[in-house]
Amino acid sequence: MSPRRSYDQYCSAARALDVVGDRWTLLIVRELLAGPRRYTDLHADLPGVSTDVLASRLKDMERDGLATRRRLPPPGAAYVYELTGRGRELLPVLQALGAWGERELGERRPTDALRAHWFALPLARGLTGEGVVEVRLDEGDFHLFVGAQDGPVYGYGPAPVAPDARLDLGTDTCTAVAQGELTVLDAVRSGRIAVSGDGPLAKELRDA
C-alpha cells in the first residue's frame, strides 16, 4: 500500500483531494455505486487502468474507509469490493462533477470506450421520486434505483424486480442527456424516450 500523499493544506477541499484526488479513484467509486463487484469485473469496466494501479487504488480506498473487501458465501466464494457508507457519500460529488463536465463531453472520439451503465448517473440526475427504472439501450440494459438512500444506485442488465418504469431510448438521446442538451422530461415529451409501466414513476414521467 502506497503512503498517502498530501497537499499539507488545512482546507477541507485539499483534505478531500488527499483521499479521492488520485487518478481512477472516483471512477472506481462510480463502478461500485452499482453494488459489490469482483476485481476482474472492475478491471473490465475501467478500460485503461493497469492491474497494479487498480489494486493499489482499491487498497488505498480500504485504508481510507471508502470501500471494503469481503468474500461471498458459497457457491460464489469470490472476493468482492463494495462501498462503505462514507464511500457512498461521494454520489452527490460525482453527480455534481458529471453535471459540471457536460460541456466537456463533446463528440465521442474513436479512442473513447463506452459502457451502457456509464449513462446511469446522468439519467438518474433527471429523475425524481422513488422506485426502480429499467433502461434499454442499444449498448445494453441497466436499471436505476431512483431515490435509494442506501445500497446500489444502479445495476447491470434488466431490473431484478418488476420495474416501476421502463425507458427505451437511443444512444443519441442518452448522449444528449449526458451532454446537458436535453432533459429526461423533454426527451419523454418529444417521444425520444418511450415510457412503459404502471408504477408511479412511469405515470409521473408520462404526465409531466
List keywords for this structure.
three-stranded antiparallel β-sheet; single chain; 11 helices; 39% helix
Largest sheet: 5 strands, mixed
Distance between the termini: 51 Å
- Structural class, judged by helices and strands? alpha+beta
How many beta-strand elements? 8
Helix and strand string, N-terminal first? Answer: HHEHHEEHHHHEEEEHHEH
Widest β-sheet, arrangement of strands: 6-5-4-7-8
Helix tally equals 11
Task: Write down the Rg.
Answer: 18 Å
Strand content: 15-25%
Shape: globular
Mean pLDDT across the residues is 95
Helix content: 25-40%
Ranges where pLDDT stays below 50 over 5 or more residues in a row are none
Describe this structure in words.
By secondary structure, this protein is an alpha+beta fold. 39% of the residues lie in helices and 18% in strands. It is built from 11 helices and 8 strands. It has helices spanning 12-20, 25-32, 39-44, 51-63, 85-88, 91-100, 102-105, 120-125, 171-178, 184-189, 200-207, and strands at residues 37-38, 67-71, 79-83, 131-137, 140-146, 154-156, 165-169, 193-196. The strands form 2 sheets. Strands 6-5-4-7-8 form a 5-stranded mixed sheet. Strands 1-3-2 form a 3-stranded antiparallel sheet. β2 (67-71) and β3 form a beta hairpin. The longest helix is centred in the N-terminal third of the chain and has 13 residues, at 51-63. The radius of gyration is 18 Å and the shape is globular. The model has no long low-confidence stretch (mean pLDDT 95).
Concise description?
The protein is of the alpha+beta class and 208 residues long. 39% of the residues lie in helices and 18% in strands. The strands form two sheets. Strands 6-5-4-7-8 form a five-stranded mixed β-sheet.
